[in-house]
Amino acid sequence: MEQVKLRKTKRLLAGHLWVFSNELVESPKGYAPGQLVELYDMKGVFLGTGYINPQSLIAVRLLSREKTQIDGGFIRKRIQDALALRQRFFPGGRDAFRAVYSEADFLPGLIVDKYAGILAVQFLTAGMEALKDLIIEALDEIFSPSAIVLRNDSRIRSLEGLPLYKEVLKGTLGEDKKNLPLIREDGVLFEVDPTEGQKTGFFLDQRENRTLLREFVSGGRGLDLFSYSGGWAMHLAQGGAQVVCVDESPRALDMARRNAALNNIQDGVEFVRADVFDFLKNQRSAPEGGGGNYDFIVLDPPAFVKSSKKIMEAVKAYRTLNEACMRLLKPGGVLATSSCSYHMGRELFIDMLRDAAVRAGRSTRLLALRSQGRDHPVLLSMPETEYLKCAFLVMDP
Length: 397
Fold this sequence. Notes:
By secondary structure, the protein is an alpha/beta fold. 30% of the residues lie in helices and 28% in strands. The radius of gyration is 22 Å and the shape is globular.
C-alpha cells in the first residue's frame, strides 16, 4: 500500500476524516482515483488508512486509524456495526431507515437506505466505487434484500470524476413498478420508488420530526410546502387536519395522491402544483387566502446553498419563504420550518428566523429545535455530518 505524507495533521488528529489536497506534502496527481493509501505525518508517524483521489479537493478520506487490510471482512464489520447501532436505538424494529450514513458510520462516501426488503445504495466517491463489489457482497449477506438499487445519480459523483447512473443491480421492481416497497412510519403507509425522486426516494431524516409535529398540531387547516410525496401531510391528515400539499413536480404530487389513498385520507388532503415562492406571493395578495388563515404550515425546502460562497443568497431565499409563512399563520399557529443546507449552521438559521419574524411583524416562540433522525448520527469531530435544522415555532397573538 502506497504511503502518503501530510503537511498538516491537526484536523485529522482531532477526529476528522478528510485530508485536503493542500495538506499533502506532494501532489496527489500520480495516484489512481480511489487507490488505498497509508497516511503519515512529517515525522513518519502512522496516522491511518484511507483512499485518495487526485481529482477531488478532498484528496484523502480516512477509513481506519489502524494499519489494516481494507477487504471484505473490514467492510462487513463496518456495515454490521452501523446496523447494530440502529438496532440498539430502534428496539422495536423499523422497516425503513438509513443503514449506513457515510462518514458518520466510518465508511465515507457510502449511503445505504433500507426500504422494507429493498436497499438503495449510493457510491458517492471514487474510493467507495473501487470497493463496490465487496460492499454489494457484504450488503447481500447481511440484509438478504429482495432488490438492490444503485442511485449513483448524485452531483457529488461528478466532483469525484465519476459518471452518473441508476441501476437495479439485484431483483426487480417490475416494468410497471408494481413491486415498489411499502413502508410504515409510525402508523402511516408510504409507497417509495428508490429509482426516482429526491435522495434515494424518501426523506428518512425527517421521520422523528414528522412524528413530533403531530403533538403540536391537532386538526385545523394548513400547508405542506415543497411537499414531495407528502411525508408531513400524511401524518397530519391522519390526525384529523386538512392539508394542502404544494409542489411544482407533477410526479411528486402523484406519489402524494397515492400515499393519501393508501392511508384512506383522500378527503383530508388537497394537491396544488405550483412554484412555492409564487404560491406564497399569491396567498399574500388573495383577499381570502392570506392574512392569517392557516393553523399550521410545514416549510421543508430543498438545499438552497451548495457552497459557502452562495450562503447569503440562500439566507435571503429562506428568509423570504419564512416571512411569507409567518404572515399566513393565525395567532397560535405552528410553523415547522427546516433547512437541509449544511452551510447554514444553527445560529445562522435562528438568526434568519428572527429576522423573518421582524419583517413579518410577528412575535413568535421556539417550541423545539431539532436535527436529523437517529439513523443519521452526527460524528462530533465532523460538523459536516450534521446538516438538518428543523424548528417548531408558535405565532403569538
